Amino acid sequence: xxxxxxxxxxxxxxxxxxxxxxxxxxxxxxxxxxxxxxxxxxxxxxxxxxxxxxxxxxxxxxxxxxxxxxxxxxxxxxxxxxxxxxxxxxxxxxxxxxxxxxxxxxxxxxxxxxxxxxxxxxxxxxxxxxxxxxxxxxxxxxxxxxxxxxxxxxxxxxxxxxxxxxxxxxxxxxxxxxxxxxxxxxxxxxxxxxxxxxxxxxxxxxxxxxxx
Length: 212
Description:
Blueprint: E1 8-16, H1 21-37, E2 42-52, E3 57-63, H2 72-79, H3 83-88, E4 92-107, E5 116-123, H4 129-145, E6 150-160, E7 165-171, H5 180-186, H6 191-194, E8 199-210
Antiparallel strand pairs: 1-3, 1-4, 2-3, 2-8, 4-6, 5-7, 5-8, 6-7
């Protein structure tokens, strides 16, 4: 079932040392995510395997709000890692972590959790942020959510990490961003005017691997 949506998001993108990959997945699924979901304010935890883009793995945790990561229960988990966690974390590669606050949403989340997500991270110069935000909320997101197979989108502002802006699109198929319909929607509205101010773009399409 689609999970409750809070205003906070924690995302960890990472690769893993190849020789540790099977154990990494077992640790994440059987220990790490269940441990974090025991912390009050962690609403859901999902993992994705990149089918386009990198790093290879992403863990996405919806939070009641970003302040959950400051409470004693979370700090207790973070500062007292289990033996298995101490073994696995040094094997992470190319790790990126972001803590985000939701600033915009559009569309209806599916009843069943979407199998695929597209995460898009980027920056824009401060002097163009007002126009960037208007374009994103009024033109870009509605056009993309209107593409068949795209359920909804949420936009976030980083309170920790860079790039500053994150958009998460829930989709039923990984190939949607390569369709003519998506390409048409991507160019809709003020895109041509805003495109020169899009910086540090990072896009990853992921297939949900947890929960299965």
